[in-house]
Amino acid sequence: MGWGWERMTEEQLGGACALPEGYRGGSYVRGWGMILARLVAHAEGGAR
Description:
Blueprint: H1 10-15, H2 27-43
C-alpha cells in the first residue's frame, strides 16, 4: 500500500502547495530550492 504521493489525487497534487499549480507544476522542487538556498545563505553568514 502506498503512502504519500501515490495516494494523492490529481486535484490534490495540483493544489496541495502554496506555489502556483501545486506539486504538479514543479512547486515541490522550487520550494525545496528556496529552502536550501536560504539555509546556505544563513550558514555562510548572509542571513541576519
